[in-house]
Write a structure and sequence with these properties.
alpha/beta; Nucleotidyltransferase, domain 5; 5-stranded mixed sheet; 13 helices; 5 strands; globular
């Protein structure tokens, strides 16, 4: 990984969080006046909560995570002005390229607009509107743009599943940030933000060095999940067939292969224990 970069990611949440605030929210009527579809006209509080975080005019920054070398610093604050005051010097003092996933189209312009909206001078590295297209590569590394090439783009979730066989969004979804904010669970948001940086870095490495990509390790937790779905074991003619199927998704150690073989053998001896069912399309491993 190039050490001349500063990796970062932001998390955003709606400006308002309650229906009481929604009733007198001035931007609500502005949205309705500009509505082009019936869906926009019938803009409910629920649809606002679901969509607002994508638009700097209707939401705010609540968390930012930085990584330089192996040092990670994460800041969160529901007082956006205080948060922006905290991160501004980090951007101002930074001499490295900015690095992240979709930072050119989202993170950087979002931050720039929120500084302006809060009547604050945006740090110079965020003022990319003055940068000539041919100079972009000298100031930032956008992992999404690298993956896009001249074709189609995708989400970090899909890219992680495609390149790494796992995703930070599997258990943690960006849609949950607003609920974490309402619950005051800033630790969850900070962890989610750090995971986005970590998985973006792994995807970047996978693109730079495709022959080094490794499948995730098959763990004890995965084995426990398999043991609870014993009916699945009998669908394979042998333990080797079962292990081959698992190895399409995971790296399986020799010790774990022996445990899987023993589990299948015990299941054959006790067929009455294979009463659990498998839902269509479900993989127990």
């Amino acid at each position: 990984m190039d050490n001349n970069i500063m990796r970062f990611d932001i998390e955003t949440c709606p400006e308002i969080l309650t229906e009481v605030e929604w009733a007198t929210y001035p931007k609500r009527t502005a949205r309705e006046k500009k509505a082009e579809t019936t869906e926009d006209i019938n803009w409910t509080f629920q649809s606002y909560i679901e969509k607002a975080s994508l638009y700097p005019e209707f939401s705010k920054v609540c968390c930012v995570s930085f990584k330089i070398w192996d040092h990670v610093s994460t800041y969160s604050n529901l007082d956006e002005v205080e948060l922006l005051k905290t991160i501004a010097p980090i951007f101002e003092k930074n001499t490295r390229k900015l690095w992240g996933f979709n930072i050119y189209n989202f993170d950087i312009p979002f931050l720039w607009k929120r500084f302006v909206i809060n009547h604050m001078l945006p740090p110079k590295p965020l003022c990319i509107m003055w940068i000539k297209p041919r100079e972009i590569d000298n100031t930032m590394v956008d992992v999404m743009q690298i993956w896009k090439q001249t074709s189609f783009t995708c989400s970090l979730d899909l890219l992680s599943l495609t390149l790494l066989w796992e995703s930070p969004k599997s258990d943690w979804a960006g849609d949950n940030v607003v609920f974490a904010v309402k619950a005051g669970n800033m630790e969850w948001i900070e962890n989610y933000c750090k995971w986005d940086v970590a998985y973006t870095e792994r995807c970047y490495e996978a693109m730079l060095h495709p022959t080094r990509i490794q499948k995730p390790q098959y763990t004890k937790q995965d084995f426990e999940k398999l043991s609870q779905k014993k009916v699945y074991l009998t669908e394979f003619q042998s333990s080797n067939d079962l292990i081959t199927e698992i190895e399409k998704t995971y790296e399986v150690s020799q010790e774990m292969k022996m445990d899987i073989a023993d589990l299948r053998a015990n299941t054959e001896k006790n067929p009455t224990e294979t009463s659990n069912t498998i839902a269509d399309g479900e993989l127990p491993f």
